[in-house]
Design brief:
This protein is mainly β. It contains 8 helices and 43 strands.
Length: 785
């Protein structure tokens, strides 16, 4: 039975931390958007040198720093001849001189940015390259420079994903169990240990498996930038999910500081530390980040601890071939307070739900391991292929309710992506084709054991009650093409063929089996038109397909006698969720103000929904089913820019607003009721002032309308608005930062999310997830080469 060995945990943490501490002490001109995109595509296969520091506007983020200076670097030929180390060292030194840690809001590329950039380097910086590539997608996308969140607390990936139009990301109890939804995806999984409805990649490699995506692997420190491709816009990277795709990109030795240290601490007993190092050595480079965190908790029974490693090693064989190995490791402990009613949140949000507050409920992830490799081959000037594979071993130990649930999870995944740029009859053409495949390995199973002897008198704790085996896989073949029909007007056509077999077997105390093997085709078409170098419009129609997570099928009948009474015995027939979505939108920059806005409408069939009942909660389960026809529609809008500039000082702003309307269509029981899960209106805004002497300050607002908590729409959370303030200092021309942050200034009592229930009682239900009250946090960040 997987369990956290505290001695081994401490020993490994000390050894790795001490080893890293010892280590720490021991010209191209782009004249057009198309040229920039083509150049970035040619070079995206090279895990080459960064160190480039240039001015760039933010794609969905504001800009708060002055233009950085161009940096002269060694040419590619010299680097490939064995002088990479010296070139990288020179580049990093130049970066420090250009104060690139001050560019906290920078990231991505707008059309005008791609046209104006003068790059005095052998390649685009990774985030610039990614931003240029996203411009070829006729739909809503986000790109997030991690520097923007380093000015404040960076506790979970919810901090990383904040201020993003269309993204609802919350971290209940401050833990890794992320509440994530894009366009209504993931409504069915509550606050579980794995995410659904959005494909997750790490460095272009698969991290989503038949059981979902593992929250604990999404540590934000060590991430350089993140791509969010909303809805059907994730097809080219292997997603047919309703919510699209999130792609986290790690630092490498070419992009990271040689030595970096960060400490955060504050209210609720919160402490988080990071040590990292990255360097280029000849044709090789490495990056390693070690993190450790502790939080006593704002709410009772929400203690959370974690220890993690994020490392990679790359090798460039030549200008055309490179390979990179990745390793992630994470141990976590997360207390579980369960759910409160609206009245309880208003009166005392620090309490945990009765009787679970007397049972000491928690989850341990004793050591999730992720191994990956990505090899890129540049076939010629017009085409390249990327081949990758990952292995995940993710044991879980849920000490919840009357029983403990023990999961042994083993997964093997692979990806192939081929891209090619052509000119056909005088028309520019971009083609992408690929495969995304993932599957359970032998040994994947879960079991339920006696946890509370009071519920099983005379039965020893740890006695086996039920055991199940899981078997499932998902394979997606996808292809798409973008062709310029006439100047600045592009058409997109493509599709994906998905095969998602699922199977499971109950092996104790009875034996039964189920299997299903759905095959679906999802077409996609779209257009984009560049009105001016700075303004474009787009539209698309996409089909999405999502099969249930393999463990969700065990949602049928329950045992009615014996020790297993109350546990789930039968498998539920769950059809794949499908949807047809159309989207229109625009983005651009005018007089220094950048906007993006999308409207989408999804007609959803067989939506996968869940509800928690008092019985299912006792046994750490939920009830899953396919809904009647539902509709998801919404608006995703973001705007940012500069309000004032004077004498080297600047005041900037950024705002993100998401309208989400998710409801039934003529359901025989619920009519046109709203679906529970996310607020209809959600807003985040920030006003940021940067001063040339190094001081900066921010004022943040987060506001949400009420969240429906029950399918009968009788229970809702209270709407809320919270305010936060940060004061910081960034040493000019040096990579040193300190900050002081005041969160939830008015100490507002609020619920950040819900776990859906069927019905309410007197207009309320125990379904709400509590947000943090007033807290003070401080941080120090130091880096150098």
């Amino acid at each position: 039975m997987p369990y956290q060995d505290r001695t081994r945990y401490g020993t490994m943490k000390n050894v790795v931390t001490k080893s890293l501490a010892t280590l720490l002490l021991g010209s191209v001109s782009f004249e057009s958007l198309e040229v920039a995109r083509a150049q970035s595509a040619d070079m995206s296969g090279m895990s080459g040198m960064s160190g480039m520091s240039v001015q760039m506007n933010n794609h969905h983020h504001a800009m708060n720093a002055p233009p950085a200076k161009s940096v002269a670097q060694k040419p590619a030929a010299e680097i490939s001849s064995g002088k990479a180390g010296a070139a990288a060292h020179t580049a990093k030194a130049a970066d420090a001189a250009d104060d690139d840690m001050g560019d906290m809001y920078m990231g991505g590329a707008s059309a005008s940015d791609a046209e104006k950039v003068d790059v005095t380097a052998s390649r685009l910086a990774p985030i610039r390259r990614a931003g240029a590539q996203l411009l070829s997608i006729p739909g809503g996308t986000n790109i997030i420079d991690s520097k923007m969140v380093l000015k404040q607390r960076n506790a979970t990936s919810a901090d990383l994903l904040s201020y993003q139009p269309g993204v609802y990301a919350q971290a209940p109890a401050g833990s890794d169990d992320l509440r994530l939804s894009i366009r209504g995806s993931g409504l069915q999984v509550g606050a579980n240990a794995t995410r659904a409805g959005v494909i997750v990649l790490f460095d272009d490699l698969p991290a989503t498996t038949p059981i979902g995506s593992f929250n604990e692997l999404m540590e934000p420190l060590g991430i350089q930038y993140t791509e969010v491709l909303r809805g059907g816009n994730g097809l080219d990277k292997g997603s047919l999910q309703l919510g699209g795709l999130i792609n986290f990109h790690s630092f490498t030795g070419y992009d990271a500081k040689t030595y970096q240290a960060r400490v955060e601490a504050g209210s609720f007993g919160y402490v988080k530390e990071q040590l990292s190092s990255g360097k280029v050595i000849g044709k090789s480079d490495y990056y390693i980040s070690v993190t450790n965190s502790y939080r006593a908790g704002y709410q009772d029974q929400t203690k959370a601890t974690s220890f993690g490693i994020n490392a990679n090693y790359g090798y460039r064989f030549n200008d055309s071939v490179d390979t990179r190995f990745f390793f992630r490791y994470r141990q976590t402990y997360e207390g579980n307070p369960y759910y409160l009613t609206r009245a309880q949140v208003r009166e005392n949000p620090k309490q945990a739900q009765y009787p679970y507050n007397t049972w000491g409920t928690y989850t341990i992830e004793p050591g999730t391991k992720y191994f990956g490799n990505r090899t890129t081959i540049r076939i010629d000037d017009a085409s390249r292929i990327m081949i990758g594979a990952t292995y995940i071993d993710a044991p879980m130990d849920h000490q919840l309710g009357n029983t403990s649930s023990i999961y042994n999870n083993f997964y093997l995944s692979g990806v192939i992506n081929y891209t090619r740029n052509d000119t056909i009859l005088g028309h520019k053409s971009e083609t992408t084709a690929g495969i995304y495949a993932t599957g359970d390995l032998p040994g994947s199973n879960f079991m339920n054991l006696v946890r509370r002897q009071a519920a099983y008198p005379g039965v020893p704790v740890g006695t086996l009650l039920t055991k199940q085996k899981l078997g499932g896989s998902s394979t997606l073949f996808h292809v798409s093409n973008n062709t310029e029909i006439f100047k600045n007007f592009w058409l997109t056509a493509g599709g994906g063929l998905s095969y998602d077999p699922r199977s499971g077997s109950v092996v104790y105390p009875v034996q039964n089996h189920f299997s299903t093997a759905p095959l679906n085709f999802a077409p996609r078409g779209g257009f984009r038109y560049q009105f001016t170098p700075d303004i474009r419009i787009y539209g698309n129609v996409s089909r999405s397909v999502q099969s249930a997570q393999d463990w969700q099928f065990l949602s049928g009948s329950r045992y009615t006698s014996g020790l297993a009474q109350g546990q789930t015995e039968g498998w539920q027939k769950l059809e794949p969720q499908t949807a047809t979505t159309f989207e229109v939108g625009s983005e651009g920059t005018y007089k220094g103000q950048h906007w993006s806005v999308s409207y989408y409408h999804s007609a959803v069939h067989n939506e996968l929904l869940s509800a928690v009942t008092p019985v299912s909660q006792l046994y750490n389960s939920a009830v899953f089913t396919n809904a009647s026809r539902t509709t998801h529609q919404g608006v995703e809008a973001g705007i940012n820019g500069t309000l004032f500039k004077w004498n080297g000082n600047a005041i900037t702003y950024m705002q993100a607003y998401t309208w989400s309307d998710f409801h039934y269509n003529h359901d025989p029981v619920f009519g046109h009721n709203r679906l529970p899960g996310v607020p209809e209106h959600y807003y985040q805004g920030e006003l940021h002032a940067d001063f040339k002497n190094g001081f900066y300050t921010t004022f943040d607002v987060e506001a949400a309308s009420s969240i429906v908590a029950s399918y009968d729409n009788g229970a809702r959370t209270a709407p809320y608005h919270i305010y936060s303030y940060t004061l910081g200092y960034l040493w000019p021309k040096k990579d040193r930062r300190v900050y002081l942050q005041f969160h939830n200034l008015a100490n507002k009592h609020y619920a950040m999310g819900v776990v859906p229930v069927y019905t309410s009682t007197n207009g309320d239900a125990a379904a709400e997830l509590v947000g943090d009250g007033f807290g003070i946090f401080a941080g120090v960040d130091v880096g150098f080469n």
